[in-house]
């Protein structure tokens, strides 16, 4: 992502599993034998002096907002995946990138840091910055943590999408759990130079060279330039596909332990420069250790919340965790490319009431007339009306509709009495004007 005080990273910032803490422990101060372990996703982990996960953080495990149907983060995930499918395909038209969006966020410290060459003393490893299950195991702080295992499995092009966990202050744009997409693309010399004439003499690697701002010691400048070009083009077109073709953007040089050279992409949106991703040419040492030494690679990582907040005008990162239908229903669209601008919902509680009635026989009836009527009677106190159920009586063949009406006021809590008065009035007026028979 792409937030962070220092950069670790420099500088950017399916089914519900069983997650439980052992007995009644407060994990920060465990003392008894019965409280020396924690169970997460049905797996037991010993706890030690590094353990610093809290119940609140544990409660977020398995929510998987990035794959929740109609969730804004899920819409953006789909748009990014679709972009990669369309942009990179093989001769048969099949996508080249494979997508991993359900890898467990529980990783080893080695995966999260060592495999990516993050120095032992790097500040991003501090207990004050990460959620440790114990000294060897943690909640991943970035989806980059899976790079080496996937490369070792033989993959050359992949996206990893998931929840990541970082200790941080909580404000409107920071929350200790957020979601990232990481990508890796590894190419052979043949692939890198396929569009270059007379490329036979062109090589990916050279010896006895030094690291410069432009490249790692082992890479030839030409291979890095071709990869850099593809990486930057891919990302600018991704940004254009999300934010529109007219965007203004700029590249900013950056440092990450796992890439060199490295950059951040910033786009100008709503009158500000917005850092949207970090990327670079992968450190060759990572490829060598993962059995891909004959290839060169690029990689990037981006934060989904940040993109979603800008695209949908979502003012607070906490809203992504909302289970309030006033929030969620605004994103209930099948096409992830639908343009949506979020409208603030009230901070006061919802009051939900159902109404069921038999439709009139002989007179026409439309749900829209009922929606109008409810708005007329309830005014601003009506937030949503949802057709919940349609039922046809097996014998009389009469049709019945059941609607859920969500009442809520923008400025105050509605009393039960007030809501029930409106609701009764809705029933009365519907019977009179729409000729329905309340059940
Ligand atoms: N993991 C970095 C972060 O969370 C982002 C990142 C930067 C990922 C460069 C990459 C990369 O794969 O190549 O801040």
From TrEMBL:
The answer to whether the entry has keyword Cytoplasm is no
Report domain FDX-ACB positions. Answer: 346-439
Ranges in a coiled coil: none
Residue span(s) of domain Aminoacyl-transfer RNA synthetases class-II family profile = 161-336
Alphabetical UniProt keywords: Aminoacyl-tRNA synthetase, ATP-binding, Ligase, Mitochondrion, Nucleotide-binding, Protein biosynthesis, Transit peptide
Alphabetical list of Gene3D superfamilies matching this protein: Bira Bifunctional Protein, Domain 2, Ferrodoxin-fold anticodon-binding domain
| Record SMART domains | FDX-ACB
Query: Where in the cell does this protein reside?
Result: Mitochondrion matrix
Q: What is its EC number?
A: 6.1.1.20
Q: EC class of this enzyme?
A: ligase
InterPro entries (alphabetical): aa-tRNA-synth_II (IPR006195), aa-tRNA-synth_II/BPL/LPL (IPR045864), Fdx_antiC-bd (IPR005121), Fdx_antiC-bd_sf (IPR036690), Phe-tRNA-synth_IIc_mito (IPR004530), Phenylalanyl-tRNA_Synthase (IPR002319)
UniProt cross-references to Pfam families, sorted A to Z: FDX-ACB (PF03147), tRNA-synt_2d (PF01409)
This enzyme catalyses:
tRNA(Phe) + L-phenylalanine + ATP = L-phenylalanyl-tRNA(Phe) + AMP + diphosphate + H(+)
Belongs to which family? Belongs to the class-II aminoacyl-tRNA synthetase family.
Protein name as annotated = phenylalanine--tRNA ligase
